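Hi P.,

Sorry for the delay on this. The queue was packed all week, but I finally got your sequence through. Input first:
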Amino acid sequence: MDTPSIIFYCIFGIPYFIFMYWLVKQDKQKYAWGIALITVIAVLAIYVSQKASKVAMDNYQQHQIDSRQIEHDEKIDSLNHK
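Then the structure:
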């Protein structure tokens, strides 16, 4: 496990699980609030993950296009200077 993962778990993961445990224990109506909150957070997490993945893929594809263009320009430049 690398450092960003450890930091993520310490700052977000562990407090989240402690809070959810506390919330479920406080709920006297068969854990309805805890289940509802977990469901909402899970749906939001999936949505954010999908958006972030799409942005990352778009950035990667644009980086590939830019890299090919730079290589092409450098090749032409080196051929002109010979």
